[in-house]
Design goal:
The complex is a heterodimer of chains A (about 260) and B (about 220).
Chain A: H1 2-88, H2 95-123, H3 125-130, H4 133-146, E1 151-156, H5 166-187, E2 191-199, E3 202-209, H6 221-237, E4 241-246, E5 252-259
Parallel strand pairs in A: 1-2
Antiparallel strand pairs in A: 2-3, 3-5, 4-5
Helix pairs in contact in A: 1-2, 1-5, 4-5, 5-6
Chain B: H1 7-23, H2 29-57, H3 66-88, H4 95-116, H5 123-146, H6 157-181, H7 188-224
Helix pairs in contact in B: 1-2, 1-7, 2-3, 3-4, 3-5, 4-5, 5-6, 6-7
The chains are: A alpha+beta (about 260), B mainly alpha (about 220).
Chain lengths: ~260, ~220
């Protein structure tokens, strides 16, 4: 009887002592599967980041090409047409008038060369980013100001950190391009204020305009458009946050905070 | 002759041949040493049966085969510690831990021998070894989980080697404790039960180890390809 009791006890205890490591092994297996999923998610996020970066590069290039196209058509094309007309209208018999027209043609050619040089700089987009984000933004603003429709103030309140992050710079630059495009297309603004500040371990960018604004809190999804969604998405990819404050008739204020570098 | 073929000797010999085929050419000396360890284990088991027969035939002049298993304890401690050193050194400087463990086992072994001589089984040393190897095994798994790199455990030789050891030593705890502390009740039915439990645990241990050796072979073949 005692032997039977002890036998039962030994069997039960042995089973319990076997279940314990079996559970440990099972737990390790489950945990390992989670680790695998986590690694896959990380790899997927990295891939998404890379593809988004390539997309951003292409968009920046596309924007540059659009700017160049528009400038060639509206500015340099006009200048060269005017030069051609001026030269065609020269009457060699009237030396005084001819000299005036030649001077005017020289002036127009000089302006064309100046415009071409500016375009050349724009074409070297990579070099522009290599100068740093503040300089690239300044260049973008210069082009906007040339249209004469906007009064833009741009301030960088602190020095950029020594080790920059080219990937983040590019994405941030594209976000700014998107915001400025939105202002041009929808805001009907005249004054734009851009402030950039390098804080410890983050960069803060604030863009304010005096345009027509919109109801930022109750904007239907279909009206959010690709622009605003892209801005939020891109900032999210580099771990940043975008705050949009706007009301109808009161302009718009967009603040972007990105961990940096 | 048939009396030499028991469940335990069968699984041990099968495991030895699997090891011989799979890991005798392994690049790691720790893994290769397991072939030798299994060979010694098989020989000890067979000699154990032989000496038991001699003891049954002449109980007055022949000692029980326990002394043989006391020698096997030393071999087990050395080979398994060596293997754990190989597994843990990927994550930590394992030598101090392993050497301390071996020193503890040596003290326990000498204490056992001085207490009851060489012809009674060193239960205390066996229990200390059990606790040590379970701790090593659990610590290895802890490091494995903490590690950032993903390893597919289904085909991990190390994982299954430790799993076999953990299951064996955890499972044998109940039997060990009962038989160490309930000596007045060491009836023959309980001895049979203990023997059956150890047979089952041996099957688990050597199955896990055989699979581990096969995984090791796969790994070598795939990495060579």
């Amino acid at each position: 009887m005692v032997n039977n009791d002890i036998s039962g006890l030994i069997i039960i205890t042995t089973i319990i002592f076997l279940i314990a490591p079996a559970f440990i092994l099972l737990y390790i297996f489950v945990y390992n599967q989670r680790k695998k999923r986590h690694i896959l998610e990380k790899a997927q996020m990295k891939q998404t980041f890379q593809s988004e970066l390539i997309k951003t590069q292409l968009e920046v290039q596309e924007q540059t090409m659009q700017t160049i196209g528009a400038d060639l058509h509206d500015n340099i094309g006009q200048l060269l047409s005017l030069t051609s007309l001026t030269l065609n209208s020269i009457e060699l018999g009237n030396k005084t008038k001819a000299q005036q027209k030649i001077d005017a043609a020289i002036d127009l050619t000089g302006r064309s060369i100046k415009e071409m040089r500016l375009l050349g700089k724009l074409l070297q987009g990579d070099q522009l980013m290599a100068l740093g984000l503040p300089e690239a933004i300044r260049h973008e603003i210069n082009w906007m100001e040339k249209s004469g429709h906007f009064e833009i103030s741009y301030t960088v309140t602190s020095e950029a950190p020594a080790g920059n992050n080219p990937d983040k710079d590019l994405i941030l630059f594209r976000i700014i391009q998107e915001i400025l495009n939105n202002i041009i297309k929808h805001a009907a603004a005249t004054d734009i204020n851009i402030e950039m500040e390098y804080l410890s371990e983050q960069v803060k960018l604030e863009i304010t305009d005096d345009g027509i604004g919109f109801d930022a809190d109750n904007l239907p999804m279909q009206q959010r458009g690709m622009g605003l969604q892209n801005i939020q998405k891109r900032a999210g990819i580099i771990g940043g946050e975008v705050t949009i404050k706007s009301n109808p008739g009161e302009g718009t204020n967009i603040t972007i905070c990105i961990p940096y570098p | 002759m048939l009396s030499y073929i028991t469940i335990s000797t069968t699984v041990e010999i099968i495991c030895f041949f699997v090891a011989l085929f799979c890991i005798s050419q392994d690049k790691s000396i720790a893994w290769r040493s397991l072939v030798l360890f299994l060979f010694i284990t098989c020989i000890t088991e067979l000699l154990g049966i032989h000496f038991r027969k001699l003891f049954v035939a002449d109980m007055t002049h022949v000692h029980q085969n326990v002394w043989l298993y006391n020698i096997l304890l030393v071999i087990q401690a050395c080979f398994i510690s060596f293997m754990f050193n190989h597994l843990l050194k990927k994550y930590i400087n394992s030598k101090p831990i392993i050497i301390s463990g071996l020193a503890l086992l040596a003290v326990s072994y000498l204490s056992d021998i001085s207490n009851h001589g060489f012809f009674i089984y060193n239960e205390t040393t066996n229990t200390v070894m059990l606790v040590l190897f379970v701790l090593y095994g659990l610590y290895y798994y802890y490091r494995l989980l903490k590690d950032d790199t993903y390893i597919n455990f289904t085909y991990s030789a190390e994982f299954w080697w430790v799993a076999g050891l953990l299951l064996f030593y955890f499972g044998s705890t109940a039997s060990d404790v009962f038989f160490n502390n309930l000596s007045p009740y060491k009836a023959s039915s309980l001895r049979t039960l203990s023997s059956s439990i150890f047979k089952a645990l041996n099957i688990i241990l050597y199955s896990c180890w055989s699979y581990s050796f096969i995984c090791r072979k796969w790994l070598t073949m795939t990495s060579a390809a």
